[in-house]
Amino acid sequence: MIGGRxxxxxxKPADRRVRVERPHAPYFRYMGAGTLVAKPAANVPLTPGGxxxxxxxxxxxxxxxxxxxEIGERLSKTKALAIFSSDAISSSAYATEExxxxxxxxxxxxxxxxxxVSIAITVLLAVVSLSYRQVCRAYPNGGGAYIVAKTNLAPxxxxxxxxxxxxxxxxxVAVSTASAxxxxxxxxxxxxxxxxxIAFVSISLITVANLRGLRESGNIFAVPTYLFVGLAxxxxxxxxxxxxxxxxxxxxxxxxxxxxxxxxxxxxxxxxLLKAFAGGSVALTxxxxxxxxxxxxxxxxxxxxxxxxxxxxxxxxxxxxxLTVFAVxxxxxxxxxxxxxxxxLAAAAAFGDGSPLFIGFAAATALIxxxxxxTSFNAFPRLAAIxxxxxxxxxxxxxxGDRLAYSWGIVLLAAVAFGLLWAFGGDTxxxxxxxxxxxxxxxTLSQIGMVKHWREVRETGWRWRSVINAIGAVLTAVVLVVxxxxxxxxxxxLVVILVPLLVAMMLFIKRQYTRSSREVAVxxxxxxxxxxxxxxxxxxxxxxxxxxxxxINVARSVSDDVRAVYITDDPDDAARLRADFERQVPGVPxxxxxxxxxxxxxxxLAYLDVLDSAWPPDKASPITFVVIPEYVARSxxxxxxxxxxxxxxxxxxxxxxxxxxVAVPYRREDPALFEAALGGERQERPGPDAPPGPRSDGPPxxxxxxx
Amino acid sequence: xxxxxxxxxxxxxxxLNGGSSDGRIVRLAAEYARQTKAQLVAVHVVExxxxxxxxxxxAGRSEEVQRVLDMAESVAEDYRIALxxxxxxxxxxxxxxxxxxxxxxADLLVVGLPYxxxxxxxFAIGRTIPYILQNAPCAVWVVRDPINEEPx
Lengths: 707, 152
Fold this sequence. Notes:
The complex is a heterodimer.
Chain A: E1 5-8, E2 17-20, E3 28-32, E4 35-38, H1 48-61, H2 70-73, H3 77-90, H4 95-103, H5 108-111, H6 114-138, H7 144-152, H8 155-187, H9 195-211, H10 214-245, H11 270-280, H12 289-292, H13 301-329, H14 342-351, H15 356-389, H16 407-423, H17 437-457, H18 462-520, E5 535-541, H19 546-558, E6 562-568, H20 571-584, E7 590-594, H21 601-614, E8 623-631, H22 636-641, H23 644-653, E9 659-666, H24 671-678
Parallel strand pairs in A: 5-6, 5-8, 6-7, 8-9
Antiparallel strand pairs in A: 1-2, 3-4
Helix pairs in contact in A: 3-10, 3-13, 3-15, 4-11, 6-11, 6-13, 6-17, 6-18, 7-8, 7-17, 8-9, 8-15, 8-16, 8-17, 8-18, 9-10, 9-15, 9-16, 10-13, 10-14, 10-15, 11-18, 14-15, 15-16, 17-18
Chain B: E1 11-16, H1 21-36, E2 39-47, H2 63-78, E3 83-90, H3 93-104, E4 108-113, E5 116-117, E6 123-124, H4 128-135, E7 139-144
Parallel strand pairs in B: 1-2, 1-4, 2-3, 4-7
Antiparallel strand pairs in B: 5-6
Helix pairs in contact in B: 1-2, 3-4
């Protein structure tokens, strides 16, 4: 075999052929002129520890997916509905109750207005979802309110929308997890003592599922979502049949919240209705998630996202209004703390208390409340990635992990949400006022942005589209004002503090990236020529050993002007080294710097400064290569024992002007290579009278004078 | 073609010429190999003229030559079929393909035939295909490029 070419005989003597080895083939594939594509083998860790970690990661998260497989990871409409809508759909489990709790203050007759309020909210939902359908089509790269506000209003409005949404997504995870734990507590009271542990486990499971990629999380989360939807629709159907047939049996109130005394009843006026409207508007949280994640859909992405948005809104509208009609028809009333929720009462009335369907629905409700967090796990990382691509977040957030998921965003969301739950002892009631404020900030900004968008593009139907968006903007702005004014003292003021803080942070990051890219930019009109500056190499040595010789040879290959620098506090030691060095490494001057204060770094830096000052002022400064010999550590403890001085040298030289630091690692595993590779010649050793050279077989940097 | 009609083979050698027919024959073979779980070997032969030694460093240095086999491997991967790429240097392409097929015990050899015309308009089959048809120990499929396609 000659240079990877193996000769083979043919059937006839003249038919010889040579099989050519292809060393790149296991690791790379040529896909174009000068373009190599890495294969999975190129990513296999080389150390046993790395390989073990890789195996564990594969078991937990699945095998790494290539970028080409991204299209296979896209979501169908049914899976996307489950993934992106779990937050919105789960809110139908408590939105009716939020309305009724407010209207209760107006007395029994006010409760009947729940249906009208829920219809009004559904109209708002229709307007918002119509608007977001347009957003999906107009901005198919995702980004939702952030992109709409940034493009049509001003970047600062985009950042306000993004900041509000990021806060909201964190809240969604924390609050929905806490709500789900509360549901479990109502069945198993002992769970209260383990609420932090349950929260940790549930957030960890959702995190792992999302790190496994979109398609798999869709598979995992679709069943509970559709189970909840199916059973909730059954409750509504049973209720409607009974209403039509006139066979509704009123549910006697048990542990119900009492009506206020007659003289303390709130008047049934616009204020009470607005409060109820604001309370029930939590149903709209999560609606925007689809518009953020349009690229996650199978092609045609924008159309599929828009249709999923419509399906979600119709489903949410039916569930919300249907459950409200059921609750009013059956005379259901919100209960005191610890009592069953309105949907639980509705399930008991429809399926029978304790029936298998009732238990199934209770389990599905708890599950979908957990899964409401999953919408945030899809929306938050995507929004963070878009912000990172625009330079408003650290770039790592735009990188996709092994499974094509935005791992950094997923992990950050999980960490912050769990941190909140832990800090608040698993009771996030205090955080709820913050929840939904952000969403309405985004709704309002995106609707105003879309009005401007239609007025600018003026495509077919722009008038009626802008009218819808304008109505939506006014309605959501009103709800925003009501929500903020109602919940300001309870904690909504935190949003007023947090949003500007986040916006300031994003602007700071953007400024940093802009400045650094300006500093390193290469003007397009410049043609880069070969460098003309002179070069010199300085090799700080700890003695004479193989690592030093290798470093000197590397330095010789870089420049003809090479000098070794030996810093010591022992003149006799220096004299011995000089004798050996001049004999064994001819042609390379050795500079001995005596360091009476036993320091290494200071004298070396001073020596480099002196070299610079001695350079003729009429010539451009040369590039100084500081070539540092290092050992390749064979184990973790060798990393502690060796190369410490080299590390210090590297760190202090890193920012020095006109200086390049070159670390030359020496592998002790290949001693046989030394003489062959370095081309050393054997000489007779000096006689016994000659002074012995300094012992320098040890590591290059493990010697005095510095420690 | 349904499974029942899939031509059965155990191991097929695909002779790639770096032309437009390469993708076609890899896809065709991969389609059948998937049904019968057969092995595929893609062979690309670089002809070395007599002015150079046979083991001259030619094919290994050429990105274009490597790309022929890498492309085949990539197409086979789309079908989730393993394909062994083999790069050869030889004086005679036909003989090298036949010898490699014989050595590997393949029961099918698939070759691509670009549609070319001689000066004067007569269809030109070249000398490699007739040699293969005459000497190959196994079944041979010849996949000709469509007429309207530009010759490679």
